[in-house]
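To fix ideas at the outset, we first show an illustrative case, written as a sequence plus integers encoding its fold:
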Amino acid sequence: MLVRDYKEAILRHYKMVTNLDDLKQRFIRETAGKSRKGVDYIKILQYFDELEENKILVYYEDLILNPREPIIKVIDFLGVDHTYVDEFFNNYDFHQAQGIKSYHGGSFTKGSKGKLKTHQESIPPAMLREMTESIKTRHGHIFDKYLTRYE
């Protein structure tokens, strides 16, 4: 499971919405924790949380800021040897550029270290706190287990 800051993951889909009340309602819908059309950020985490199989969690920000550590973690989880790890990281800029080419045309951050909070920059801090409190209140277990780093 790759987890990104809920404020970034949700707000990036609504960057054209300028009405804060409408944005707030969309955020609440996207974190309802109920099956419905579209993507529900919390429902995905609940599904992951309930899985009893072997599983691994990687945070998007860790992957962007220090890619070697989470990539090694995934390789170890998969039971793959480290034969090509150094070669991959010796050519990391090339591989990152190749990955960015696969982004759709409307993508803005393109995996940039400097843009980890770009979608929430234009949101008033009070609303960002409301978003956090909303998730904590409605989905405390999920928040405590997976999302406290984004508080």
Remarks:
- The chain has one domain: 2-150.
- Residues 2-150 form one domain.
